[in-house]
Amino acid sequence: MTPVLLWTDALVFLLVACGIASGIYISRREYLLASWHRVGESRAGMASLTLLVAFVVVGLIDSLHYRPRLEAASGQPGGYSGEVRSLLDVLLQPLRDGTEKTYSAPLAAHLYARETVELPDGSQARVFPRLKHGGAHLADVEAEWGRDVTLRTLRGAALAVLAGLTFVALAVLFAARRWGTGWQAAWRRIRRGETRFAWHAALAALGMLLLLAGPALSLAGGYHVLGTDKVGQDVLYLTLKSIRTGLVIGTLTTLVMLPFAVALGLVAGYVGGWVDDLIQYLYTTLNSIPGVLLIAAAVLMVQVAIDMHPDWFATAAQRADARLLALCLILGVTSWTGLCRLLRAETLKLRELEYVQAAQAFGASAARILGRHILPNVMHIVLISVVMDFSGLVLAEAVLSYIGIGVDPSTISFGTMINTARLELAREPVVWWSLLAAFVFMFVLVLAANLFADAVRDAFDPRLAGSRRSLPGKMA
Amino acid sequence: MSLLRVESLQMFLDSAAGPVRAVDDVSFEIEPGGTFALIGESGCGKSMTALSLMRLLPDVGRVRGGRVLLNGRDLLALTEAQMREVRGGEMAMIFQEPATSLNPVLSVGRQIGEVLARHGALRGAAAARRARELLDAVGIPDARRRLEEYPFQFSGGMRQRVMIAMALAGDPALLIADEPTTALDVTIQAQVLELLGALQRERGMGMLLITHDLGIARQLASRVGVMYAGELVEVASRIDFFAAPKHPYSIKLFAALPRPERRESVLETIAGSVPSLTTMFSGCRFAPRCPRVWSRCREEIPAWHGAETGYAVRCHLYDAVDAQLAGGGPAAQAPTEESASSLQAVEAAPLLEVDDLKVHFPIRQGVFRRAVGQVRAVDGVSLGLTSGRTLALVGESGCGKTTVGKAILQLLKPTGGSVRFRGEELTALPAARLRRLRGEMQIVFQDPYASLDPRMRIGDIIEEGLSALGQGGTPPAKARRTAELIERVGLSATMLGRYPHEFSGGQRQRIAIARALAVAPRLLVCDEPTSALDVSVQAQILNLLKELQGALGLAYLFITHNIAVVEYLAHEVAVMYLGRIVERGAVEEILREPKHPYTEALLSAVPRLDADGRREAIVLKGDMPSPSQPPAGCHFHPRCPRAMPQCAAAYPAETRLGDTHRVRCFLYE
C-alpha cells in the first residue's frame, strides 16, 4: 500500500502540530499554565473535553489515508487501487462491507421493505426478507433475537466496565504518584471531587462514553446498530465517517476566516479614516450579496474547473477532497463579515480606553498596541463566535449539500445524511434512524465544543478567575 | 417624635465566601426638617443603608434584623404593595448619576407625570400644572417648554434638578440623597446644594444625605453619622463633629484631607485597608488600622459611649471606666514634620513652554462629511513649567484641560500654536525624534480601572514603556528595574505576577505611576489622578507624588477640578474656562486673591471645612456654554455677576498683575 496525503489531511495535521507547539509554549509559561489549570478545574469543561477528544481521535484516524496495493497478476508490476481508504475504514471493515439491499431498522434482522420472494412451494409472496449481514447468524429470529441482543449488550457493557475500570485505575495510580499518597487516598479524593483537576468529571464522561460505545461495538458484530440507509450502507459507519467532514469544515473554515475577520476588524477600528471606510465598504458590499448565491457561484466555478481538468487528481477521493477544501475556503471568505463587524465595534471602544492611550504615550507602534492590548481583549469575542460559527458551518454544509453545491456526493457528511433524510421522512413508513443518528452526533459534537469554549473563556478572563475558585462546591 | 427611626438595622449580602455584613447594627434618627449626613469612604455601607430603607436591595441582599420606623410605621413589615405607596410618596430618593437615572426615551414631563399619577392621583391638565410648578421649584427656567423635552436635551446639573423635581412630586416627608452632586462640577454642585437646602427649609422635609465629601456634610447636615465597614462609629451634631471629631477613624479622615497649611508636610494616611465584611468581628472593626489601638480593641466589640449627651462614639477610648487610660480622648497627631517638598535646585530654564496652543475638532455633517464647524476645545493656551515644579490646570469638565494635557504629549495633533519641550518644538518634530522624547514625558490617567490593561500582568504593564522605547537592556535588567519601580511606589515585588483586577483603586493608581516612571520621565501629566479615589487613598497618592517630585525633580502638569488638592500640591495655578486660560499665577496669589470673577466663583463654590474663612458662595447662573458656539466677547460674560457692556464685544487681553499673576478680564485693564 502507499500512503496518500490529501490536502485537508495536511491542513488537519498542521493544525494538530500547531496545537502541540502551543502546548509546549504554554507549558513553559507559568501564567498561561495557570489559566489552563483553571480550565482543568472546570467540570463541564473536562467532561466536554473528554467527548471532544473522542471525536477528534475518530477524525484523526479517519485522516490517515492510503491506497491499497492491487493483487498483481504474476509477472506484471503491481499497481495501486484507485480507491483511497483511511485507517478508520480498516477498523470498520465489517461495517463497511456489510451492505444490505436497502433500508433496515436499527438492530433489525429483516429488511424495512417488502420483496417478492419465491416460496419453496413455487408460489410467490411479499415478505420482509432476511438481511444478508444484520442478524444473519440467527437461525430463528423470533425465538433467538431478544436473547442474542441482550447477551451482546451485556457482553459489551461488561467490556466497557472493564475498560472504564482500567482507566480509573490508571488515573488513580497516576494521581497517587503525583500527590505522593496511597492509592486509596487518591481514589477517595477523586471520587469526592476534591481534586483541582476535575478528574471525576472527565472519568464520568469517559465512563458514559464507554458504556455507550461498548455495547454498540459488541452489537455491531452481528447487527446494524443504527440501521442501514437507502443503499444498504451501515448508518453507524456513515456517522463515524461524517465526523471528519464536520471537523474539517468547522476548523478549516474558521482558520480561513479568522485572519480576514481579526486583521480587518482590528485595523478598521483602530486606524479609522479612509482605511475604515474601505473595509466597511468591503464587508457591507459582501454582506448585501446573498451568501448562498456567492457560495453557489464560487462552488460551481471550482466544480467546473475540477471537471475540466481530470488530470489534476489521481483518484476520486482526491477530487472530492479538493472540493471539500474549496468549500471551506469559500465559506471562510464569505463568513468573516459578522465577526469583523463585531471586532471593529469593540476596537473602536477599546481604542479610547486609557491603557491604550498610555501605550501611545510610550510611542508604541500601532502593530504593537493592536497585538498586545487590543487583540487579547477581544479574544473572548473571537473564541465565542468561532464556536458559534462551528455549529453554523456544519449546518451550512447541510444546506449547501441540499441545493447541490455542498461537498462532493461521494463525501460522507452530516449534511449529505440530513439531506437524504429529507426524502426518508416523507416516506411511509418513516425512516427516522439516519436523521436521528446524524442529529445526535452533531448535537453532542457542537454542545461539547460550546461547553469547552465556555470553560476556556471563563478561565482566561482574569476578572472571573478569583470568583470561580471560591465556589462553595469546592469546600464540600 | 422623630420622622425616621432606624433601629439596629442589619443587612447581609449573600456571596460565595459567606454573608457580607454590608450594614450591621445601624441605628439613627431623623427629625422632621433635619438632615442626617452619612459619611464614609466607598464600600462602607452608606448606599446599602439607603437601599435597605427603600427596600430596593439587590437580589442577594437580605435584611436580617432591626426596624425602620417612618412616622411610626415599620417599613420592614409592610407588604411590597404598601411599600410601593411609600416609595416616591412618603420617602423619595435621588441618585448619584443623573445621566442614568432618567429614562432616555420618555420626555421629562411624562416621567414626572408618572410619579404624579401614582402618588397624587393627578392626571391631565392638573398634572401638567403641577409638573410645571415642580420644575419652577427646582429652578428650571421655561418649564412649560422643557417638560416636552427629553433627558439628553438637559445638562448634567439640569438633569439632577429634574431628578429632584421627580422626587418632590410625591411630596415626600423624607428625601434620601445618595451622593447627589458627586457627578457634577463644583459650580453646578453649589447650585444643587443650595437648591436642596432651600427646598428642605421650605417644605420641612427630612433628608438623609449620603456623601463622602466632608465639606458638603458641613454645609447641609444637622447631624452627622460616620460609617466604617458596615457600622456607624460616630453620631453627633454637625457643630460638635466638625469642631472636634472623636473616633480615631473620623480624626484620620480629617487629617487625610489636603489643606494649604499642610503643604510642607506629609499627609496623614490610614494604613491597611477596610477589612473584608465576611469576617466575624470579635473586636473593633477599625482596630487593625487604628493608631491608638490597644489590647481591648481586639478582644471586645466597643459599645456606644456618650449617647445621652448627643455625641455618641463607638470606641473603647471613650469608655468612662478607661478614661484615664485614654488620657482624656485622643488628639489629632501632630503631622510629621519631615518636609517632602524640595524647592532647591529649581532650574531656571523652562522644561516646557506652551504658546498659543489650539486644538480644534471639526464637526462633520452630511454624506460627504464636510466640516461645518469647529469645536474649539483648546483655543490659545500658553503655559510654562520648570523642573521640580507643579502647575495645576484647574477647571470644570468640558473646559478643555484634559485636551491640553494630551496635546502637549502629542497624543492629539494640535491645530495651532507651539509646544516646546527642553527647547525642542514638539509639533514639528519628525515621528522618530518624537518617539525618543516620549520617554521624557509621561501621563497618569484619572480612572485607575480603565488605565491598566485587564489582560496583562502588572510586571508586563510596568515593563511596557521600557520595551516600547527599547530601553532597559536585557530581560533580567528589565525585571530588576520593574521590581525596583514597584517598590518605589510602595507595593511589593511579589505582586508583579498578578493581574490588575486583584488590586484596589489606590494600588492601581500606584501601578499606573510606576508605569509612567519606568522610562524616567522629566514631565508627568497627571490627569485627575485622585478624583476616583477615597480621601485616605488620595492622601497616599498625593504623598507619593510629592515624594517622587522631591527625589526625582519631576515637573507635574496637574490637571484637576479639586481645589483642595491644588492648595496642597501646586506651585502655580492656571484656571481654564471654555478652552482658554482666564487667570494664572502662583498658588498663593490665585487662591488667596482671585481676580477673575470665574476664579472667585469657582473657589467660593467649594464646600469648605474651616468655619472661619466662610466666604459667601457665589452661585453662578446656568451652565458652561458649548465650545462649538462660544459666546461672543469674553466667554464667561453670560454667567458673570460683574459683566459689563464691553465684555460682550471682545475677548479681554492678558493683564499683568505683578511678576507672575496674569488675568484676562476687563475689570483689571
TrEMBL record, chain A:
One of its GO terms (cellular component) is plasma membrane. Gene3D superfamilies: MetI-like (1.10.3720.10). InterPro entries: BP-dependent_transpt_permease, MetI-like, MetI-like_sf. GO terms for biological process: peptide transport; protein transport; transmembrane transport. Residues 243-453 form the ABC transmembrane type-1 domain. Keywords: Cell membrane, Membrane, Peptide transport, Protein transport, Transmembrane, Transmembrane helix, Transport. It comes from the Bacteria. The chain crosses the membrane at residues 6-26, 47-66, 157-176, 197-226, 246-269, 281-304, 324-343, 378-405, 430-453. It is found in: Cell membrane. Pfam families: BPD_transp_1. It is a multi-pass membrane protein. Belongs to the binding-protein-dependent transport system permease family. This is Peptide ABC transporter permease. The lineage of its organism: Bacteria, Pseudomonadati, Pseudomonadota, Betaproteobacteria, Candidatus Desulfobacillus.
From TrEMBL, chain B:
Residues 4-254, 352-603 form the ABC transporter domain. The keyword Membrane applies. InterPro entries: AAA+_ATPase (IPR003593), ABC_Ni/Peptide_Import (IPR050388), ABC_transporter-like_ATP-bd (IPR003439), ABC_transporter-like_CS (IPR017871), Oligopep_ABC_C (IPR013563), P-loop_NTPase (IPR027417). Keywords: ATP-binding, Cell membrane, Membrane, Nucleotide-binding, Transport. One of its GO terms (molecular function) is ATP binding. Coiled coil: none annotated. GO terms for cellular component: plasma membrane. Gene3D superfamilies: P-loop containing nucleotide triphosphate hydrolases. It is found in: Cell inner membrane. The keyword Nucleotide-binding applies. GO terms for biological process: peptide transport; transmembrane transport. It is a peripheral membrane protein. Belongs to the ABC transporter superfamily. This is ABC transporter ATP-binding protein. It comes from Candidatus Desulfobacillus denitrificans.
